[in-house]
Amino acid sequence: MRVAPPPFPARSRVRRALARLPFVPFVLAATIALSGTVDAQSTILHEFLPPDPQENLSWSTTTIDGDLPAAVQTPSGIATAPDPRRPPDARNLYGGSTTDDTPESTYEPDRDTRRPNVENYEDPFTPSTAPFKRLRAFDAVLDDYTLAVRDKTLRPIPIGGALAPGEETFYGDFSVGLVPDQPVRIPNVGPGTRLLRLSSNPETRIEVVRDGADNWFVRGHDRKEVRLVVQLGIPRATFGSAFADVGWSELERLVPPQPTAHRVAFAQVADAIGISRAMRPRDALEKMVSYFRSFEPSDDPPRGREDIYLDLALTRKGVCRHRSFAFLVTALNIGLPARMVVNEAHAWVEAFDGSIWHRIDLGGAALNMESQQDDRPAHQPPPDPYAWPDNQDSGQEMADRSRQSGGQSGNAQNGGTNGSTPSPSATTSSSATPPEPAPSATEPVDPNAPPAEITVGEVGRDVRRGLPVILRGEVKSGGSACPNVRVDVLLRSNTAPEGIVVGSLSTDDRGAYNGPVVIPRELSLGEYELVLRTPGGARCGAGETK
User: Is residue 153's pLDDT more than 70?
Assistant: First the structure.
């Protein structure tokens, strides 16, 4: 296995303009410098003045290329524009080299309901939207509960315009590895985001497009690395407002018929929640939010019904991704337009009332979140219109803990958004810090049990840092399956002969494991041997791949 770097319809050419900065102080300084009566030994001709966001705001100055306002006032404080002159960061790219980056991306639910400890997270926005960077959204549920995008048609995103009443603005700053004429996924701050300004370094001919679930992509005509700095606008109500009092008939045209195979399961879940079409949509939504926020993480995978939706929804087990998945299935089957959104650290849902999409966090966040810390203001959303249970574990609360701890909360552990596409992290290092193995949910290991034999399905030779690798296989002992045992995933090299633990999976009742493990972005590039190891369980001993 070789670990490698992570890899608008109107065409718009990113323009470079002269900066419209106030020139009076410069002219004055130049006049003093040229005066023959000034004592050069006692006069400071050039003095560094640090940037003043308040001054930039009052003078309405722009960035040095003239494309963006140098600072903007937001409900979260004054936000300063990123420097558009910086080159792209080749180490941290949004790249189009994997299926997960393309419009064909799908999501498969899982039963690993353990609460993760720490998630690496990169936030390209100012104010900081952590952990709600909108990276991958799904609005369709297939027969086997795989999530997908219903309308994959890519449509252009207009560039330009002014901030509208009721909107707030954000800056975005990210590096992209363009693939000729192929869409590369990039993040946005929420549904309905508008692209007000865009600057590119180097100057590049690109298109920015979105699909039917409001996933964003950038498409260029040359293979190159570019840095994009954008200004965005979005209705503030998206982040926290009451669902409109609309009727089911107003929403029906927005929700296509759902798979008939899900009807019986949905009826059981709807009965457990206490919802039906006899109540108003906003009332049904409120009960659903309360129900799915009541889920609890569990070391015991929910099973027994041969239906993952029923297992999760009726046992009320799961973290953010399980709650969001079960909510989406329920919402679409009752007739509420909804989406599930995931990134590398969190998952949540969106619901549409016919006028505006509402971001709704169902909780289930990681214990902590490891993220870069800087002087950007943290986004302050409107008050949450829905009540939280006593054991609140919201994404906002996780982000606040991260900021208070300086962003260094411990070691990273896979599991935050199983199947999501991780984005670039802010830093890299020459050696990866191994995550602590996930706790085992099995019974004590029988020391006399035969050693486990682990098989591994086909794995691609090139593996990208920061992206998931799907691993499939079986664990057996003496020819019999090893159910519900932990399978640790390690990468071994000459510089790490003991192996670096990059994540853990669990076997099902038949001894099979199937799931993604995210390769740490801090991992050094090079050749690695993939090793899978299990501590065993009540029916099998410890073992690892040969």
Answer: yes
